[in-house]
Amino acid sequence: MRALRYHGPGDIRLEDVDEPEVGPGQVKLRIAYNGICGSDLHEYYTGPTMVPVSAPNPVTGVQAPVVIGHECGGTVVAVGEGVNDVTPGTLVAVEPIQRCGRCRECVAGRYNLCSRMAAFGYTTGYGGLAEYTVVDRVMVHPLPVGFSEQQSAVIEPLAVAYHAARRAEVLAGQTVVVHGAGPVGLGTALTARHFGAEVIVVDPSPNRRALVEALGGTTVLDPGDGDLVAAIRDLTDGRGAEASIDAAGAASALRVAVESTAKEGSIVLVGVHHKPLELAAAPLMMGEIDVRFSMTYRGDFPLVIEAMAAGAYPLDGWVSTVPIGDAVEKGFEALRNGGAMKILVDPAA
Ligand SMILES: [Zn+2]
Ligand SMILES: [Zn+2]
Fold first, then answer.
1. CB distance 276 to 299 below 8 Å
2. What is the pLDDT of residues 195-246, one digit of tens each?
3. CATH architecture of 160-293
4. Which ligand places an atom closest to the C-alpha of 112?
5. How far is the CA of 35 from the centre of ligand 1 (A)?
6. Number of the ligand closest to the Cα of 35
7. How far is the CA of 71 from the centre of ligand 2 (A)?
8. Where in the chain are the domains?
9. Mean pLDDT over all residues of the chain?
10. Ligand nearest the Cα atom of residue 34
11. What is the pLDDT of residue 339?
């Protein structure tokens, strides 16, 4: 089968590799689409961070080259021994956390914090940027009839967003500011809107602001347009937002969040910061504002699927597709240059 394998930074190759074989407790999928993620760009341009290149991964024993890609959906084509609750022909979304199931965190249901976790698409050998893959049954979520193949592949980034919105404990009628309108920021805004919150989205890119605006239901602000803290306070009768979500991983977003979050509100960091954080402690302490982090997801996939079935996540304007042969040139490069939001790779095209 055709697969995109990561050999090292700047070195992803379209190769012909053996199809993975389904083992006990596993399912084999024909991949419909696999989205390219910001983490994949990091791995390609500045990695390796996740892929074990110089030594095997201690949990899986896998070493580069690996088939990358972790945002995917597909159709079940075979099931392994012991799997009797999902049948071939079913469209599923893949939840790419391969958990140990036995550690303290897994036993408590906090599998996103598993200490012996493997990451599908980085440390498991077979990822989503291929014609076929194999995963544990627990990692697939069957989708309702009527879901499209494109929808199956965006559920993963939306689950990241959904978890962040849950961490913010957003209630109907409250105001949420989302800093950064990449796919996760956009997903967080749509989730908060689905929860009944008033949503303000902040992003410096005119393209992204236009895109969010076109989806409707949110107020969009340009951080370069005057005093952002004052603008957020104006929109909230002076009190600030009950939740501020940093989906940008930007120090400037955090500075604004500290000054524009309501008393007893929360600041949730879902964007990745590569430098130590600088937070002004006084306003956080004076307002008893919680600062929290959000790490991937746990239990969020079924909730995203339910919200998606209710129409919470229109794909208009922010999702496009490329054939697998063009994934680096028209996928990775286009995302790096800021010309696209979410690019889904079609392994069959
Ligand atoms: Zn991702
Ligand atoms: Zn575990």
1. no
2. 999 999 999 999 999 999 999 899 999 999 999 999 999 999 999 999 999 9
3. 3-Layer(aba) Sandwich (3.40)
4. 2
5. 8
6. 1
7. 21
8. 2-142+318-346, 160-293
9. 96
10. 1
11. 75
Instruction: Please report, as a single letter, which amino acid is at residue 156.
Output: E
**Within 13 Å and on the Cβ side, how many CA atoms surround 254?**
21
CA atoms of 192 and 196, how far apart (whole Å): 7
Strands (E), 299-340: 319-323
Point out the ligand nearest to the CA of residue 42: 1
User: Measured in angstroms, how far is the CA atom of residue 198 from the centroid of ligand 2?
Assistant: 37
Distance CA 269, CA 221 (A): 19
Question: H or E element: which one contains 160?
Answer: helix 149-167
- 128, 95 contact by CB (below 8 A): no
pLDDT single digits (tens) 95-105? 999 999 999 99
Question: 117: CA distance to ligand 2 center in Å?
Answer: 6
Helix (H, G, I), strand (E, B) or coil at 164: helix
Q: Which residues pair with 215 in a beta bridge?
A: none
- Whether cis (ω within 30° of 0) applies to the bond prior to 88 is no
How many Å lie between the centroid of ligand 1 and the Cα of residue 266? 24
Tens digits of residue pLDDT in 105-145: 999 999 999 999 999 999 998 999 999 999 999 999 999 99
Check residue 338 and give its pLDDT. 85
Torsions phi, psi for 62 (to 5 deg) = -85, 145
Nearest ligand by distance to the CA of 70:
1
The pLDDT of residue 125 is 87
The CATH superfamily holding the domain 2-142+318-346 is Medium-chain alcohol dehydrogenases, catalytic domain (3.90.180.10)
Distance 37 CA to ligand 1 centre (A): 4
CA 293 to chain centre: 14
Ligand positioned closest to the Cα atom of 108: 2
- Residue 24 Cα to ligand 2 middle (Å): 19
* Ligand closest in space to the Cα of 138: 2
Which two structure tokens, joined as six digits, stand for 135?
Answer: 């995963």
Both tokens of residue 47?
A: 């990695």
